Amino acid sequence: MAIDAVTSEGFLKVPHASAPSAALPRVRSQSDVENDRVLALISRASASAPPQLAVYLKQAAPAIALMWKFINLVAPLYVAMWAMCVRVYETLPLELLEALMGLGMCFAGGAYCTSIAAIEAFRLTGWKTTRRALLDVYAEAKNVQAAHAADDKKDDDRDGKPDVLALAPAELLQRKVKVLALAVKDPDKMMAAVGGLYTSWLAVQGTLRLQYAKTITLGVSIANELEKPAMSWLVPIAVPLIPPAYHHWIPTIIRVTIKSVAVFIAWQLQIIISAVQSAIRGGRLAARKTLSYCDRHGYIQVADVDGLAEVIGYTLAVLGFYTQWQWGFGLPFPLNLIMFPFTLIEWYIRYTVTG
Prior knowledge:
Layout: H1 30-48, H2 51-91, H3 94-108, H4 113-124, H5 127-152, H6 169-183, H7 187-211, H8 213-241, H9 250-296, H10 305-326, H11 335-338, H12 340-354
Helix pairs in contact: 1-2, 3-9, 3-10, 4-7, 4-12, 5-6, 5-7, 7-12, 8-9, 9-10
C-alpha cells in the first residue's frame, strides 16, 4: 500500500465519488480572458513594431497586462462611486451638501488645496457655461461608453468569441474610432463643449498662478540661495560618477534638481497654510449649514444658532487640522485609493501652476 494513501491518524484515504477530479478544467474568469486578450494585443503589436521597439514591448508585456488588470479591477469601483455621488447630489438638500463639502475641506483641504482653489475660480469665471459644457461632454461620454460595451460583445462571425479578440491592434484601433464617431450624436455640440471647458481652464489657470505666485516665488528664491553652495558640494561628487563626455550637463542637472526640491518645499509650506485655512473655513461651513438646516426643520431649539455654529465650527477646525497633521497632510489607506483620481488632478494642477 502506498504511504500517501494513509492519513496521519492511520486511516485509509478513500476517494469520494463527489470529490472534484484534478483533471477537470478550471473555469476561466472574465478577468483571465481579458488579461489574455491584452497580452495577445501586445504580442501582435510587438510583431509589427520596429525591432528595437518590439523588444521593449515584449519586456513590458507583463507590466502592461498587470496595469490593465488593475484598471479593470478599480474602474467599476470608481463608476459606482460616481453613481453614488450623483444620487447623493440629487437627493440631499443643498444645505446638507454644503455641510458635507465643508467636512471634506475641514479634514482634507490641505491635500487638495489647488483643486479647491480651481473650483472656486471656475465659479468666478463663468460656472454656468462650464457646467453646461460638462453636462454635454458627460452625455456624449455615456453614449460612447454604451457603444463601446456593445461593440465588445459583438460576434458577427458566430464563432463563440467576440470579434474584437481576433483583431490586430491597428484594426482594433480603427474599429474603435468608428464606434466613437458613430456614438457621438452631435459633434459640433461636443467640440463646442470641449472648447468651452478648455477656455474656462485657461482662465482658471491664470487665476491660480496669480494666487500661488508667492509659493512659486518662494521656491525660486530658495533655489537661488542654495545654488552656489550646492554647486560647490555636488560638482566634485558628480564628476567621478558621470562620463567625461557628459560633464557639461552637471551644472544643469544640479540646478534643475535644486529648483525642484526648493519648489517642493515651498509647496509643502503652502499645504500647511492651506490646511489651516481650509480647516477653519470647512468646519465653520459644516457647522453653520447643518445647524441652519436642523433649526429650519425644527430638529433643534436653540436661542443663538449662530453662536453655537461658531463654537462647533472652530472645534471642528481644530479637530480637522489635527487630523490632517496626523495624516501627513494626505489621506490614509483606503481613502487614498478611493481619492486617487482626484489626487492625480491635484498633481496636474500643481504642475501646470508651477510651470
